[in-house]
């Protein structure tokens, strides 16, 4: 990791010094242990603020369209896929972007750790080991055990679109959709109860929507008054309407970066919905979003023999 | 004076027959204030609830009134339901926050019955903090981990008993029914003294922030503060002092209701006018508004900073916007003096 | 909102079904059923859309949130869309909607999809009969999307 961060800083410094970009969007150390925070650097001497480690959990592609000027963005595998989808959907101009791609071994699920140790007072990550001093107890973890759930099933840890690639490649973990299958194998009643419990946690803060690079509508359906899709009631029924509505709006577009689940202050299992939709898109249409410029988004194309299992029998 | 947790638990259970008792309960992986039927449901040893207890007095989605139209006749029904409530286990920061909300919902011209009818029928049993989190900074905000402001009774956890202190008449009346009190041992007194003198370790300096902000409306500090903010409502919804709301009508044909829902100044459409004009359509102006409201406007209007240092916004923010850093930033910002 | 609808003659529960029908095929098919007096249960409330491709997943979710016990979405047969490709795009959307709704625990049979052409008056009646039977068997909608009248906390 050490030489990677030096290379990232050097690249950022050079780009800013040469005036090739107006701003570098990257990660700097956060104010909490095991937390990084997005940063917007505009002068070469600030490049030393940049960090790169397992806490770089935000998807910086969210900022691409709303940041003025030519920008360099540090992009993990999933982030670069997000940028690709945004380019395909004409939300970004390729010339405005300078993508600094870095292969990613995954990010930490802080909530998983704090469920055991209580709020973290201090923590360090060295050589794949995470040492934590928490309010309730101290503990040491293997990084692989506290990796974010999305990262555990990540198929694209290496950036797919770059202007500059830093560091080596990471082998994609063996992944299938066993997490979705596990839920599918439950009865409808069990799933209904599970999602009702998850939806009882949602407070409709829309952190998930705002953290997602693909949610960029000027007027989101939640804010629409005519027609009024949502009343603002936070009962489980409306929360589920919001979450499934959003999941369906992301069909064929979600890159499974996990920013939504990690953004949720309440720990709602948003992943259960997005992974199901992505499994369907992969199995029905053999499509994964943002992996190649030649592959059009799944809901923009069709074929004569698309499955139609959903039809009535009559 | 102390009461054993065993006796307290029995009284707690008895109280649920007469009152709605709301206490910190562990549910779906998080601790939040919910109605409890028994002391055994109460989460011991918790730091603070995920969401603040303000929703007890100021629900996230509340029907204010409903109406039915029948020809020319319209019947209006007040939907306010008030019952006697005991709020147990609230931390000093959240109790102080209630006092701040009081100033919003009552002034010389208006008293909000939805908030205050509930408030007047609620007894607040505060619980001082034995543990302090790295994100707590209440000591810098004029209170402390054992502050009694806003509580009717203040308890301190002594292990197998609670130290009880009466703060108001309401608290005294409730205490009368709780059980026999006993003297503290020397060790127990020592615990009380330690808790009462505890301070949060994270510090900020708000001594001059209001005056500084008076001069900062057009300051360049706001140009960069907002950049990483996502514009969601996570901070406002987890804040015990945030109180902005929207009122809307839910109507179908001949019946409908007027509802009040939480809103947040961080949302892009918060200030959208019917005309289409939006005075705060930029994140920059919204973050300026957040800081100005909490640390300047609220002070001028109500005499207090609208932040109690609970740290929920810091923990909940997806991109680690830290209000402590924002306070430092304001303190350090260069002001051009005319 | 949501009280049981009871047929005054047979005293049987009659569900309310929101039927989104594409103008050129399914709506015309329904019209043909009417003209030809092919009887079908009066449980559907038709909403005419220009094309099945117009269907926003939110229509289906909101219909149920508003109290519909079931939903029928019907368009032209693939290959016959008046706008050439509207129903091809819709086919992908419908597959994903159907799958996700089942996943979150919505009972199978509440949301139904069909391709009915303008010439299929008899078939339209059959489709509605089938949908009504399935939705009625599930009982009134008290399920995952039904807003519990007012949506107050707790």
* Rough outline of chain B: globular
Largest sheet properties of chain B:
7 strands, mixed
- Cross-sheet strand order for the largest sheet of chain A: 2-1-3-4-8
H/E element sequence of chain A: HEEEHEHEEEHEHHHHHH
Q: How large a portion of the residues of chain A is in β-strands, by DSSP E?
A: 5-15%
Terminal CA distance of chain A reads: 60 Å
Computed Rg of chain B: 22 Å
- Helix/strand structural class of chain B: alpha/beta
The oligomeric state of the chains shown is heterotrimer
- Count of DSSP-assigned helices of chain B: 11
Structurally, how many domains make up the residues of chain A? 2
Determine the most extensive contact between two protein chains. Answer: A-C, 51 and 48 residues
For the secondary structure, the number of strands of chain B is: 11
How far apart the termini of chain B lie comes to: 58 Å
Helix residue percentage of chain B = 25-40%
Poorly predicted regions of chain B are none
Which stretches of chain A are poorly predicted, pLDDT < 50 over at least 5 residues?
none
Report the β-strand fraction of chain B as a percent range: 15-25%
Mean pLDDT of chain A: 94
